[in-house]
Structures
1.
Amino acid sequence: MRLVIERGELLRALGHVTSVVERRTTIPILSNVLLKASDSTISFKATDLEREVIEEAPASVETPGTLTVPAHMLHDIVRKLPDGAQVELQREAERERLTLTAGHSRFALQLLPAEDFPDIAVGPLPHTFEMSSADLKRLIEKTRFAISTEETRYYLNGIYLHMATRDDGAMLRAVATDGHRLAQVDLPLPSGAEGMPGVIIPRKTVNELHRLLEASAGSVTVSVSDTKVRFEIGTVTLTSKLIDGTFPDYARVIPQANDKELTVSNSDFMSAVDRVSTIASERGRAVKLNVDGNKLVLSVNNPEGGSATEEIGVDYGASALEIGFNARYLLDIAGQLEGDQARFMLSDPGSPAMVRDSSDGSALYVVMPMRV
Amino acid sequence: MSIRQLSPETINRIAAGEVVERPASVVKELVENAIDAGARDVEVVTAGGGLSLIRVSDDGCGMSAEDLALCVERHATSKLSEEDLFDIRTLGFRGEALPSIGSIARLEIVTQEQGGSSGCAIIVDRGAKGPIRPAAINSGTRIEVTDLFSATPARLKFMKSERSENLAVSDVVKRLAMAHPQVAFTLVTGERASLKLPACKADADGLLQRLGRIMGRDFLADALEIAGERDGVRVAGFAGLPTLNRGDASQQFLFVNGRPVKDRLVVGALRAAYGDTVPRGRHPLVALFVDVDPRELDVNVHPAKTEVRFRDAGTVRSIMIGAIRHALEGAGHRASARGGQDTIATLRPVEPAAPSRTTGAAWSGVSSRVASVPSSSPLSDFESPQGRVHGFAEPVQAAFTAFSATGADASADAEPARADLMDSPLGAARAQLHETYIVSQTRDAVVIVDQHAAHERLVYQKLKAMLTEGGVARQGLLIPVIVELGEEGAETLAEKADELLELGLVADRFGPGAVAVREVPALLGDTDVDGLVRDLADEILSESDDSALKTRLEAVASRMACHGSVRAGRRLTASEMNALLREMEATPFSGQCNHGRPTYVELKLSDIERLFGRR
């Protein structure tokens, strides 16, 4: 293999693929990136056995070939090369090494056999649809904070992406929950997604995908089977295994009969919660919401540190109510709302509360109260 | 095959199989008899691991010739009144020991009744009872068992080495000796006297003296007296400080009505009482004496009587826990004195006396070689054990250099020690070394405190107090977690619902063999609810302790304490140091950090003086 590639192209491609490569692994080849040169392109592939990312870049290829080199090392080298440099990659015939030459710099990297590089057996992906990357990004951003990190309930360690039917038509819905709170976001169902299976996309894949989407405008092609999902974003392809489990029947926990409606300015609410929770010292300290008429009093009481209260004007018509929440959960949810007004649907101090954006019906959040 | 009535000899041999398992069982039965006979001095002699000879002599009440003839008969005893089988106030009562021993060995009893004029003797040889004949003896009883198991060769094959039989014998005698400090014991195994315990006073001091002889001098220095009483159950004895601990539970003794027993009750009670003050996998040293009305107790669980059953085990357990906790809290910041002794031992130089006795070469240039090649030296026997040889070796010297180097600048801001502070247990802070250790001075000692470990403990105790006082905040679960526990597990967990609620866990029955967990302690965050509840149910079922939840909460508190405390490397002012010392004195359990390590060592002035050869 012998080729010349512009440093910027090389850096961009490596940046996309190397982040799936674990820094510490027990299988040496997983630290490597697979380089495949043919015609006028070079492709890069990296994997952690659960997911793989493939990226292509233009290059002037003299001799085609396939080889693997340490991914993070190659990435670090290229990052430190001067902007605009022409990078020459050449496999040394007599030794199992790749020489990288740029200007006066010269590196030789150890190779591992390309035929050992693992491949995710993808199989057919029967459902394919296209959506804007901004839409997909929105689905992820508004739900991923609620993904559980607790490993025993592994089926909660991802975003559940599936079809849902509402009064106003079929929807593509993303749901995440950790058992304490839940986030649900809907989008009109893209054409081609009809009949797709419900899939749980693992957290690491979600984060990789989000990173790739940030760098892209345009559209994303999503292909799904029962066990795999693939996202094609421009020249990058991310293929991932899915979490093999059953997402719980989340619809049951979304309260239907919460009739105490409270509307509050989201920014006022958020900064007030943030301020009063300063007093809380330990993790999971409750902030108490006391609402009566058009007055909401937020309070935190910490026997060690003192107490804090703040009053904000709200729109509330139901009977007075006192209910406590984990301050961090409230902040997480408030941070997702885009409109000016947050709409809380409450019931009693022991039942879940529902939060929505007053201007946007596509997202809803549920949070369980805390009790002392 | 027709059914036959077994002969009395056979019956006795079968019974012997239960009572007499190994030589130590014989010793146990005979010494118990001696104690029951009111002996003040008991001597035990064994040979060949007890197989060739066991001789127990006492100065107890002895027996008349008529009693002697009867005592070797089966089910003959003076200790049990037929009117009330449950009023057992003696160690023995079944009337089995002597005939059992007599059926499998050669048994000779020589005795003289107290106040009687002449002694008498009897020999039972493998079940064959000889005549009563006169014998010469001072008052008391001497029993000799020879050729043990010669009538049961099968059992003989299963004996362990002489050494391990000797160990078992000595263990039996030690346990009985701990329970009866007012009796003097002598144990001779083989040729040398392996144990000689003079009689002690029958009060707490005497008991502690006796325990110290058996459990070691460390225990003597670090034992706390415990006492608790409720509903006719009395718990007394001594418990070691948490920093004095062992890798196994062999130094935990339980005595019920003067009877050494083994009971799992102690394990759970000790775990609950010591809790987080002892490192995982380490066991504190204790000797617990429980006195209950004999009617509340079943000692007849096993012929060897090493197990008992309490009618109300819960009460006994809670009194034990209460008494030990009370003592530990009273001990406050006290850490094991061993820390100081270990330090002194490390610092102490090799005794120069040994080399000086040689040709004198030791004082010339070659002296260092003597220490480095101990095996080739004819004097190796005189030298300290390897671990101590490094007395003035390089690293220790280096530590001293650092001592003086940092000592100078650190003491700059330490005010002159105030006289009143010197009287408090941890003294007046004089300096901080390596920004990690506080050195303080008391009237008669130097105290070195690990500032991080100490402060961590203080923060932790505070967090724990907050947990208990303020209640545990509970986070509701959107989706209740259903945990399959089986009928029994679900039932026991449901019974404990109130206690669990206080710790922040709400779970109720869900169908026959499962519980639904609806709220969990908010402190635990996104946690493995299923695993937690299973652990809890297991613990409650095994009656050990329902501490799984508490342990986890405390683990979080401990982590938070670690982050929220003064780190090593932070420079403290004199008043900060003094404040820390005063708080340690006021806080229970501050003598050890959350991981059970000591937070300070105290070097007695007398030890330091010895170090420099001033004493």
2.
Amino acid sequence: MATLVIAEHNNSQAQASTFNTIAAAKLLSGETTVLVAGHNCQSVAEQIAKADGVTKVLVADAEHYAHLLAEDVEKLVLTQADNFTHILAPASTFGKNFLPRVAALLDVQQISDITAVESDDTFQRPVYAGNAIATVKSNDSKKVITVRSTGFDAVAQEGGSAAIESIATAEQAGTANYVGEELTVSERPELTSARVIVSGGRGMGSGENFAMLEELADKLGAAVGASRAAVDAGFVPNDYQVGQTGKIVAPELYIAVGISGAIQHLAGMKDSKVIVAINKDEEAPIFQVADYGLVADLFKVIPELNEAL
Amino acid sequence: MKILVAIKRVIDANVKVRVKGDNTGVETANVKMSMNPFCEIAVEEAVRLKEQGVASEIVAVSIGNQQCQETLRTALALGADRAILVKTDDDVEPLGVAKVLKSIVEKEEPQMVLLGKQSIDGDNNQTGQMLGALLGWGQGTFASKVEVADGKTQVTREIDGGLQTVELSLPAIVTTDLRLNEPRFASLPNIMKAKRKPLDEMAIADLGVDVAPRIETLKVENPPARKEGVKVESVAELVNKLKNEAKVI
Ligand SMILES: Cc1cc2nc3c(=O)[nH]c(=O)nc-3n(C[C@H](O)[C@H](O)[C@H](O)COP(=O)(O)OP(=O)(O)OC[C@H]3O[C@@H](n4cnc5c(N)ncnc54)[C@H](O)[C@@H]3O)c2cc1C
Ligand SMILES: Nc1ncnc2c1ncn2[C@@H]1O[C@H](COP(=O)(O)O)[C@@H](O)[C@H]1O
């Protein structure tokens, strides 16, 4: 048994999801190796080498890994696959993009979005927007798995001293080229690793009105999220979307403002520790998952809340 | 160019899904079924590319039971030119679906395959990427914009940090995200017309691909229930509870 985790990072730092994925790997019986593919990404390798539970870090540094295109990551991971029984990546847009390609070429049925490890071949994963939890057993000789970050507490990022080893890069695939990125820049914590999230829905009425939530978020050191309706209406960028088909979050405190609580939204946040719902409709389904519900007009109570904090 | 669109029939997004009493799966008897919402977006995008003069023919493909015919007829009413039903009464896993689609692609030779980014039943988010790898093609997953010119496609992708644009040489795979377009409704005349469009059927066994399942579902359970919450009357009470009861602020 031996596990390979593919690190998610931005060439200077590992994303939090990498440490959640290593935590899932630790529950398997094999030792954990982490692969860092990137460009000028040595600092990422050094950071991960200190993480708890990591035996070895492999580094593949090349210009064509700068943006971690799926076609190129696929080819690289395949060069290492023979040495491992389990290949894991975070169930983020990074992991979801390339890992099924690896699985297909290994002739393995990938298991997506696991939230628990029962044994080396048996895992839990939510299906139907989290309306059901399936326990599944893989009969493939290798297991290829994406890990839902909210299912596993991140490993400690200190104390470890894994060996770092450079590996040969694979040839560039040539079928896809990176053109550009428009990334949301924010001083606030990242949505998927924030301790507190303040989310707005259609009830916010406009993008300008999100300023109220940003003020609240800044008071709480929170990230700002949104429902699909708020993103579709153009109030906030796409990467704010929480839900079945957006980001899955489980902060200590989730404050849903002007969000009705459709099943697809609940799928992304109902594992939060404490949920607060603010909605003027007392029948809104969001109140069924809320620990604290406030039936009120958000335009009245959010300024009051900002005042009180 | 020819576009192939892969369509899955799933439990309708508005149905409250219920776990079966014997924990073997979810209730499907007398439950409304529809085209997977991401597949609707894929059909719409293909139709728009045809309206722009980029696409010349749209072929819709579904792998599933006889009722998938209905879903394919919907795709035909929305603007697909022909449809192929690959029939099976068994659940086919994404790897199996990708293998079947590969064999269809080899026959049809499309320049683009459009798929949904995920099916809302299994939430796998795998099939498009697997098909891309099996064919050795590039992919633009989670697309919010697709442009085709000069034998290439530029795809803007919804990623966790924002948006990313990639350029792919054709043929290529595109999987759709929610913001790619807003699907139209089929008009009555188009629904009538769709009844006369060609819909070929074949048995999965005739394709000679191995679709035997690799995953056993041991049980399907309800998610853990949350404990019942309370209503608070004021902002002051809320702040007090968050500070002193939940101790989260
Ligand atoms: C395939 C598919 C995938 C989807 N994926 C997602 C997803 O990932 N994430 C997601 O969020 N949704 C998703 N959805 C959409 C989902 O079904 C809902 O449509 C969406 O979540 C609704 O957003 P909302 O709650 O902001 O809007 P609405 O349902 O319109 O609710 C607005 C709420 O605001 C309240 N309100 C209005 N004004 C005020 C006020 N002044 N004060 C207080 N309250 C007020 C109203 O009472 C109402 O409850 C998906 C849907 C489909 C079909
Ligand atoms: N049985 C099927 N028949 C046709 N297309 C499918 C089937 N299963 C999955 N797909 C396609 O693959 C996409 C992603 O599905 P999945 O990988 O299951 O999340 C869907 O939106 C469809 O476009």
3.
Amino acid sequence: MTKKTTEELSKIASQVRRDILRMVHAQNSGHPGASLGCTDFMVALYFKILTKNTAFNMDGKGEDLFFLSNGHISPVFYSVLARSGYFDTKELSTFRQINSRLQGHPATEEGLEGIRIASGSLGQGLSVGLGAAQTKKLNNDASLVYVLMGDGELNEGQIWEAALYGAHKKIDNIIATVDYNRQQIDGPIEEVMSLGDLKAKWEAFGWQVIETDGNDMNTVVQSLERAKTMTGKGKPILNLMKTEMGYGVDFMVGTHKWHGVAPNDEQLANALSQLEETLGDY
Amino acid sequence: MTKYTFTEKKDTRSGFGDGLTELGKSNKDVVALCADLTGSLKMGDFKKENPERFFQTGISEANMIGMAAGMTIGGKIPFTGTFANFSTSRVYDQIRQSIAYSEKNVKICASHAGVTLGEDGATHQVLEDIGMMKMLPNMTVINPCDYNQTKAATLAIADFEGPVYLRFGRPKVPVFMPTDKPFKIGEAIYLVEGSDVSIFATGHLVWEAILAEEILAKKGIKAEIINIHTIKPLDVKAVLKSVKKTGCVVTAEEHQRNGGLGDSIAQVLMQNNPVPLEYVAVNDQFGESGTPEQLMKKYGLSASDIVNAALKAIKRK
């Protein structure tokens, strides 16, 4: 698993993007924009970076843990979990349907393998990740905790409560990534609620910050590898990752308009024609 | 018949603190988090004896709740501590999503509930917490009545798998519950048997109910007093058994009438045995500053209010 080349990872990402579009299209519901933007990161994480056990166990002792805080990008999460062996890819066809384990936003209630916390109401995942990281320290468990947050999500006050805690308590076994796509539902972040100098903000809160291009597979992998080398040094790590919403589909790139809108039949066909089917559609 | 008396008064929060200290010794998976109220929550001894298992979160209740949820992953049993208001309404969505919906084994321990926190006034006197917490699926809601029961409940919830809301208070109140029986979550305790009226009380109001029973007895009325320490899951069997005998009900709680213990019991009665019910509870008001005794009297939560409610309920039979 860890020997995957950048080229192989990019091929998986192409398939994951197809999954996202097909899942959202099938139910005419879901959030394709940021799912597509975070695909390279999620593929790198699950196919290269994480030491994990796909025989799912909630406690996750001795394995790296990942928490998705911006739960609305569930399509990419579900696809990556299925494609990396947590559950059958056929189940992706049940996304957002009645009686499905693949809820609109991730949930633990139905026992879907790979999900350790419900998310969707924003701002909570960093706290959960810090708690899990704190428990790993208590358990003398050297594996790491990863968290992904949206940038719009940084409007939530709880994130900054968590930021204070992480630095104050020297939680240095956590790598939190911000999907810095500079868009939120009502428009560009600069118009809705400016985040200012995010790097300076996180540094001022006492975090080690790295900046990445989140849509270049090589860079994504390298930055995560680098982040790992920065753990254990008394400071939490923040990976400020610039992405483009809708990345991989020309008419969806760089706009908030595809935040929570599904493509129609024609748009789906157009989008799929831009993405190679590498692992077989579910 | 057992007569309930007391030789000392103690605060229920100290029952929590002492229970937690005991857990520190007996259960190595127990961890405690506190949002800058270690002294008020009586968590100091646990902190002193288990510094590596005590987590000061600062005045960041939302982060504390999220962290507690995360700490369960890997097998810890987190006990969070802050005032009841900041344990519930301030962090309701965090509890709902990260703990209740996610089925996390977190114990939300809430002090200074109700009007009896006294002089701090309405901003701190939460009277809606039982309602909020009992509405959440997966949540167990416990409101013990004295020091002994609070300590016993604290120990019991550590062995129970699942989210729990444990509610207790600030003032020193009579210590009267025997310590010889283990605390059983969801099992109501018959304190006094009677045949004329069932008085279901929770928290600080249990002692008031005992005082009310003595006053009623002098009037020739035999009241049955039942300590409902677990509001959810409610001991429906015990409620119906008592009501079958008495035919009328008084509920007593330091909480809003809307959504409290009384409403839970009314629901059971409506579906099974609709008999007259009178509420002793705060009626759609905020509290205010004052001493606990003054506030109990002004907001209709004292023994005499229970007596009047009982007389009214009996009349309606």
4.
Amino acid sequence: MPLPITLTLIGLSLALALLVGFKKGISQTREGKMLAFVALLVLPVVSVWGGFDAHLDRAESTQFCLSCHVMAEYGQSLHYDDKSYIPSLHYENNFVPRDHACYTCHTDYSMFGPVKAKFNGLHHIFVQYFGTVPKPEDIKLYKPFPNETCLHCHLGARKFEEVNGHHKTPDMLDKVKSGKLSCISSGCHDTIHEVGDLKDAKFWSEIKGAEAK
Amino acid sequence: MNIENKLRRASLIIAAGLFLQFVSLLPLHPLAFIAFVGLGVPIMGIGVLLFLFSLVTHSESVASSAPVASEKTQR
């Protein structure tokens, strides 16, 4: 449900609940009883569903992921002016939707992948406020990055299937597709966020800014 | 407490929960989600339960008073 509609629905529910609360004798008439039933049961339940849906939808946005201070450097790493950095290559060339960049690559494309990602997010909030927040460069994935996430988009693409690098050995592509050879940790595409490189890095957005001047 | 007051109490609690839900949807931050789930929804849920409870207890009191009224009319 889009956010403006959800906000309107909750606002309407709120107004009707207040009307029932402050209007005297509302439960005396049949219409009043029906209004109370809608205002105090039906609309609040629908509002919760809409609000929950809106929150989950917004939790998938890049802005949401980067709203925690510890993630700021990961946000910067999406703007490297270097094609060897996988996240910035994908972000700058719109290979992933920019407003859902983190979620696109860090969610399993399995049945319960999004649910798992949300529970991981709750764990991150707990650590942020009640635990010890690690340094950005010390943050690690829960498990090695799965090939399925890359193959979700790249599998079957001509460039992926035909590029020379994927045919160094006869069975290389099959190993990648079956997950026996990792896209990232096998040493082929292992330049990821590398937030330790940020100090000396050149950024695409800076170049764009300089060109504009 | 009569049904009117019970409904008023329930509606005000529901309104408080809905207000928190509305406010939690304005900022884009993880804590806003926590406020929605941890405060808005439980407060609203308590209000809805009180509303349902008031309906049940009211209908029970009406049912229990009905035979007494009929006895009076018989006399």
